Amino acid sequence: MIESYYIINNDNIIRDLSTLFSCHIIYNMNTTEKIILIIFYLIIVISIPLFLDILLRITVRKRRKYIMKHLAEKKTTEKNKALLIFNNRYSGIVVYSNDDSEKAEEFTGDAVEIANNMADNSCVILISETLEYVEELEQFIQQLNRVSGGDLFIVNIEKKSPRMLWDYKIINIMDKSYYTPGNLMIKWSKPSNLQNKIRNIYKFIFKLIPYNLFADDPIVKNIDTLNSLK
Question: How much is the pTM?
Fold first, then answer.
């Protein structure tokens, strides 16, 4: 018992000395060194949501997009319709059959305007990480359903993703990370005041580093990589 008592107390003494030593180092730093240390810790804290989101991107989201792309391609074959892929709100790829061969074309433009000008039930739609950035979302979803004839596949950003803390452009937090035909009861909410306050910090940070470096995550980067997820 006496030996155990001394071991416990020795551990406490070592911990106290370690804390005291750390405080002594900080206390003896000059102002410049303290500022550098604070900046260093701030960079670490700010970087955590960014790199956690990258980890999600290369694991969970990559797998989800692979599955959704496969399902959309299967539906395209079943319905004999073109496949319209929105990589984000402003770009994508359309895949269609021409003379018994598959063709693909890249396009740019606002997804909202594109959907408004397309014919009813004209294609299967796979739309990724776009609904989060559309203000008139209810009307946009109606147009997507009209154009796809219900053959609509949606990939969203997870509502509890670290990205909700740093992506200051997100205005809709989607209830689910994906939707498929027959399961299109789409719900969403708005960012909280706390999320908006944290995002304001990142809004300033993204004036110093490229926003798209972290936000851009297309299902299909270009025609050359169209089959890269197969």
Answer: 0.82
Residue 83 and residue 109 in contact, taking contact as beta carbons nearer than 8 Å: no
Q: Is residue 159 part of a domain?
A: yes
Give the residue numbers spanning the domain of 163. Answer: 63-225
Task: Please check whether residue 36 lies inside any domain of the structure.
Answer: no
Count of domains for the chain: 1
Question: Residue 209 falls within a domain, yes or no?
Answer: yes
Going residue by residue through the chain (230 aa), what tens digit of pLDDT does each one get?
A: 434 433 344 445 445 434 544 454 555 666 787 788 888 888 999 999 999 999 999 999 999 999 999 999 999 999 999 999 999 999 999 998 876 778 899 999 999 999 999 999 999 999 999 999 999 999 999 999 999 999 999 999 999 999 999 999 999 999 999 999 988 899 999 999 999 999 999 999 999 999 999 999 999 887 776 654 45
Q: Is residue 7 part of a domain?
A: no
Of 135, 139, 143, 136, nearest to 119 by C-alpha is: 143
Q: How far is CA 144 from CA 124, 131, 210, 218, in A?
A: 10, 11, 30, 19
